[in-house]
Write a structure and sequence with these properties.
5 helices; Aminopeptidase; alpha+beta; 32% strand; seven-stranded mixed β-sheet; 7 strands; 157 residues; globular
Length: 157
Amino acid sequence: MTATQISIRSLNYSDLPQVIAVERRSFPTPWSLAMFVLEFSKPSSVCLAAIEAGKLAGYLICARYDRVWHLMNIAVDPDARRRGHGHRLLEALLDRVGPEESYTLEVRTSNAPAIALYERFGFRPAGTRPRYYQDTGEDAMIMWRTAEMTSTSGAAG
């Protein structure tokens, strides 16, 4: 991480142009504007922005389903990676929602940096979704983080 100041705040609708730009630079099949608007409109969603030098450098979208929080989308602009944005976003999510809550996510099996980050926060593999990503046919690793898992592992949060 560099000494650059990173702040975390809630995403706003006015952030959407920057969010869409980061999304398109980060994923081969980006979310549409409508998908982001839908998640922003849910009262149970937590939508966070990582700001560096006054610019949106990354974001996180997490939604509650029943008693589980689903990390729907997290991205850091390719030019801002490896500076702690993803770490700070996940840290802020756990601070806002609570480390005792249960969380799940899907991640490309080839995305070793993301998997390592999630593991540092106590997420553990729990299976795969074959051919989950339509753009490449790649499998998704399903990961879970529960209070029971983190109380024995000493994970961040």
